[in-house]
Amino acid sequence: MKGEWSSVTAQGIAAIRAIESSRPPEQRICYDPLARQLVSPVFYLLAKLFWRYGEWRAPGTTGFIVARARYIDDYLQTCLDGGIDQLVILGAGLDSRAYRFEQLREHVKVFEVDHPATQQEKCKRLRRIFDELPKYVTFVPIDFNEESLEKLFDFGFDKQWKTLFIWEGVTYYLTAEAMDSTLEFVVRNSEEGSSIIFDYVHVSALTAAHKRGEIARMQRYGRFTGEQLIFGIEEGKVVEFLSQRGYTQIVNVTSEDLKRAYFTGVNQNRPIAPIYAIVHATVKS
Ligand SMILES: C[S@@+](CC[C@H](N)C(=O)[O-])C[C@H]1O[C@@H](n2cnc3c(N)ncnc32)[C@H](O)[C@@H]1O
């Protein structure tokens, strides 16, 4: 991330969720009715104008983004039904879950962690929607590449509470050291039964001679926005990767799994990019 710049990718992803949410119920894969208000009107307009072109250049990227949002929503609901005390949204961007899930309001302490520049911009938009920032959400400004998540303790994070960490659309832009230090923080500071969910790209997609359109583009322009695609995990190796770092009950969810689960009816021929996956895991007791 570039010092003062709010995240461009956070805007782009939220714009895609906003467009998806404007479809009729039987046609949409995810539903985020707040996305339209959170995203800047300029980004929304650009996304509306260019998403077909984007899909042509990189088929299935939007399919993965909307299926990822849906899967993480469903996973959060399962965790809420099972009982959690804290939710930490890492690299929250314009994620609206804190304001969409009623159960969070009463029973769960929510932390939104993000780069300070992105967080400031989001808080401005939230104030426009809600007048004031909701009290059950704590905003923690952190640059993952520079700072440690230990900062969460200064903002009231309690390591004895059962916690879900959501890390959506972020690992791609981090150094291997920042990945490790976040995964280690979660393991060291989570009560039994706590879990983490995140998505990642197969490392081969970052290094291939012929890269998919969106990868080539983001690698080309990332140095201007400060969001460089640099991190991936080897295909088929995520279970080993996380078990070596202290996790158990590791579930890898491939694009094919997402397609089977959500791309039904009118969406059955909609493509989903094969190079991405989601994983969730529980902290070993
Ligand atoms: C693609 S957006 C995803 C936002 C949100 N999780 C979502 O899915 O809509 C990437 C997010 O990672 C955050 N991010 C990228 N690099 C970061 C860093 N070094 N430290 C903290 N946050 C970072 C950006 O601020 C942005 O919110």
Q: How would you describe this protein?
A:
With 285 residues, the chain is an alpha/beta fold. It has one domain: Rossmann fold. 46% of the residues lie in helices and 15% in strands. The protein has a seven-stranded mixed sheet with strand order 3-2-1-4-5-7-6. Helix 1 packs across helix 3 and helix 1 crosses helix 4. It is globular and about 50 Å long. The relative contact order is 0.15. The mean pLDDT is 94. Bound molecules: S-adenosylmethionine (SAM). S-adenosylmethionine binds next to helix 1.
Describe the secondary-structure layout.
Layout: H1 8-21, H2 35-38, H3 41-57, H4 61-82, E1 86-90, H5 97-100, H6 102-107, E2 109-114, H7 116-130, E3 137-141, H8 151-154, E4 163-167, H9 176-188, E5 195-201, H10 203-207, H11 213-225, H12 238-243, E6 247-254, H13 255-262, E7 276-283
Parallel strand pairs: 1-2, 1-4, 2-3, 4-5
Antiparallel strand pairs: 5-7, 6-7
Helix pairs in contact: 1-3, 1-4, 4-13
The structure holds S-adenosylmethionine.
S-adenosylmethionine (SAM) binds at residues 1, 7, 9-10, 13-14, 91-95, 114-115, 118, 142-145, 168-170, 173, 227.
Low-confidence blocks of residues: none
The unique ligands bound to this protein are: S-adenosylmethionine
Please describe the biggest sheet, giving its number of strands, its sense, and whether it closes into a barrel. Answer: 7 strands, mixed
Task: Look at the structure and give the mean pLDDT.
Answer: 94
Overview features:
binds S-adenosylmethionine; alpha/beta; Rossmann fold; 285 residues; 7-stranded mixed sheet; 46% helix
